[in-house]
Amino acid sequence: MIKGFVFDLDGVITDTARFHYQAWAKIAQDDMGITINPSVNEQLKGVSRMDSLNVILKFGHRENDFTQEQKEALATKKNDYYVELISNMTPADILPGMKNFLDELRAENYGMSLASASKNAPRILKGLKLTEYFDKIVDPASLHHGKPDPEIFAKGAELLKIKPNEAVGLEDAFAGIQSINGAGEFSVGIGDPKILNEADLNFNSTAEVSLAKIKAAYAAKHK
Ligand code: G6P
Ligand code: MG
Predict the structure, then answer these.
(1) Is 10's C-beta closer than 6 angstroms to any atom of ligand 1?
(2) Would residue 8 show up in a list of annotated catalytic residues for this protein?
(3) What is the model's pTM?
């Protein structure tokens, strides 16, 4: 039986990828002399702040040009700019269909937790006025491994005090689907089914997410 839902944030509840991109593009250009492009941005989805910086440095062939201290300063500078960009987020920034879906889950008393690699997740939920929907938020600082490692989604179910096979995980990134599957949870992909081909169930967009379809696919998998 499904007892709870573990959510990714970026790309599932709201679209912050565009702000991450805008912030990284500026810092990469101004402080590293690297011009990033949308395909680099794809590689940053679900990836921690410092790992994102490393992806960009590698892309620009500058991975050995900065000290740890300089890298931390660059990551802080990016975050300051990012926080400025997200400071105007409102409930209008919730992706289509997700508010209704969350209301539906709440009406049926499912546990809900957040499994985002973002340290800014509480701030973003506040802007979207969704804080009270989430019983628990995984603290990314407490994790040893990022997605695709199962740790973050395993923790998301653990915080809800439910077993992995009672949890449904929602993700828009392939690494996230791998994390959900590795944790032994039911995986719901949101986006291109060709990319998210390991998901137990896929929806093309958040607008299509349906609790009835999730329940049916979960029941079919567990019969
Ligand atoms: C999410 C985003 C990533 C981002 C990471 C860390 O997983 O998809 O692009 O790098 O969070 O976010 P933060 O807000 O902590 O820098
Ligand atoms: Mg995501």
Answers:
(1) yes
(2) yes
(3) 0.93
